[in-house]
Amino acid sequence: MEKRKLRGGMIGGGIGSFFGPVHRMAATLDGQAEYVCGAFSSDSEKSRRSGQELYLAPDRVTGIIGNGRKRICPAA
Q1: 41-49 long-range contacts, Cβ below 8 Å, gap at least 24?
Q2: Which residue in 33, 40, 55, 32 sits closest to 10, CA to CA?
Q3: Separation of alpha carbons 65 and 22, rounded Å
Q4: What pTM value is reported for the model?
């Protein structure tokens, strides 16, 4: 059986956030998980830059819109 990493996304926690980096580090510390998408800020440009810093695909990063229910991680 192939061993796969847990893949997930983050809402909030972008550039300038204190807890975002701490949570990402803790979640990936054992190498069993990876982030594949995110909505890191209500400011779309700030969210995009956060995604770039994390080497995420541009189509997997968005700003937080409305009630936060926009689907950005299909089949993550």
Answers
A1: 41/12, 41/14, 41/15, 46/14, 46/15, 46/16, 47/14, 49/14, 49/15
A2: 40
A3: 24
A4: 0.79
Residue 34 exposed, middle or buried by CB count within 10 Å (0-12, 13-18, 19+):
middle
Determine the pLDDT at residue 18. 92
Main-chain dihedrals φ then ψ at residue 37, nearest 5 degrees: -165, 170
User: 66: which 2 tokens?
Assistant: 């409305």
Residue-wise over 62-71: b if at least 16 C-beta within 10 A, else e?
bbbeeeeeee
pLDDT tens, the chain, 76 aa long: 778 899 999 999 999 999 999 999 999 999 999 999 999 998 889 999 999 999 999 999 988 766 555 556 655 5
